[in-house]
Protein: Sporulation protein YtrH
Organism: Desulfofarcimen acetoxidans
Amino acid sequence: MHVFFPKLVLIFFTAFGIMIGATLMGSLAALLMKEPPVATMLSLAKEIKIWAIVAAIGGSFSTFEILESGIFQGDLKAMVKQFFFILSSFSGTHLGYFVVVNLTGGKN
């Protein structure tokens, strides 16, 4: 148990950081190219959500392998852990998206 919760928090903040960092760097690139940075931030926030989730949990293949072993080998504990890791990643990504939308004054 002592490894599970730190990893859960790490995944959450990694997903959150990917969302915030990608949108901020994208808006900087838009500013350099004389494009509207706020619109770019909103667009990137919508487009990068799934990639932030996948990147935060360490790629999709290992997750699918663990889920497969849980289903076919009956390892329920591994499946539950992966579910919480995916949920943590989704939560961090959604919070990052929510922050970007509120900072830019945009709408979901």
Observations:
- The chain has a mean pLDDT of 88.
- Helices lie at 4-32, 37-47, 49-56, 60-73, 76-104.
